[in-house]
Write a structure and sequence with these properties.
Blueprint (H helix, E strand, L loop, with lengths): L1 H29 L10 H20 L4 E3 L1 H10 L8 E7 H4 L4 H9 L3 E6 L4 E6 L6 E9 L6 E3 L2 H4 L6 H4 L13 E4 L2 E4 L8 H4 L11 H7 L1
Parallel strand pairs: 2-5
Antiparallel strand pairs: 1-2, 3-4, 4-5, 5-6, 7-8
Length: about 220
């Protein structure tokens, strides 16, 4: 009887953890704003300017960083931001960021008129100019997993998952960002990007990397 009660308690605990994880993902997704389908030339230029400015403190701090997610798609497809892309997406390494005092990190960005805020649930930093709400930049943090030796996302939502849940953790082999990291053009800005073209996108977009994905509201606008 004790064994049955123990198993029941264990099942309820695991079910609660899974339910909590699902709720957090739903809330996080619901907070994402629908992008504009076509930004003005001025707004697209602001994205390039923010990227150039964001690179300065990253270089000052000697952090490894590289273009990723939709910003990398933009660089590979159109050598700049996608028409509906309203933020810059870069990725950084946890072992390097964690070695920097948080106050010093914030001051380093503040010297360039940039505000940086960490989201501990999602494992990313959000960056913007102090005097502008738009555009923003995201620094998604990755760490090397001791079991798989791949890089995987951090954040307490992701730490609840097992190391082999790579579709959700966006695991990718560290060889793709072996130094020296090559650069690509993003508008008129040169920025580091992973090796082998779209190879990393197979890990960052495991369910759609081979598709031409357009935001739903943009598809509806053209129908």
């Amino acid at each position: 009887m004790k064994t049955v009660r123990f198993q029941l308690k264990r099942f309820l605990f695991l079910a609660s953890v899974v339910a909590f994880f699902i709720i957090m993902l739903i809330l996080w997704n619901n907070n994402q704003e629908l992008p504009d389908c076509y930004m003005s030339t001025e707004d697209l230029k602001k994205l390039e300017d923010l990227l150039e400015l964001t690179q300065k403190p990253l270089q000052d701090l000697k952090l490894t960083y590289f273009l990723c997610y939709n910003s990398l798609w933009g660089a590979l497809k159109v050598k700049g931001p996608l028409p509906w892309q309203n933020s810059i997406e870069l990725c950084v390494l946890n072992k390097e960021v964690a070695a920097i005092d948080e106050g010093f990190l914030i001051r380093s960005f503040k010297r360039h008129n940039l505000n940086i805020v960490y989201n501990s649930a999602g494992g990313y930093y959000r960056i913007s100019k102090f005097d502008e709400l738009f555009p923003t930049a995201t620094l998604t943090v990755f760490e090397e997993d001791a079991i798989t030796s791949n890089l995987r996302r951090v954040g307490f939502i992701h730490r609840m998952l097992p190391p082999n849940a790579c579709e959700e953790l966006n695991c990718f082999p560290p060889e793709l960002i072996a130094t020296p990291i090559p650069t690509v053009q993003f508008g008129e800005v040169s920025v580091p990007a992973p090796r082998d073209g779209i190879e990393i996108q197979k890990y960052l977009f495991p369910y759609s990397w081979w598709k031409e994905v357009t935001p739903l509201n943009c598809r509806l606008a053209t129908e």
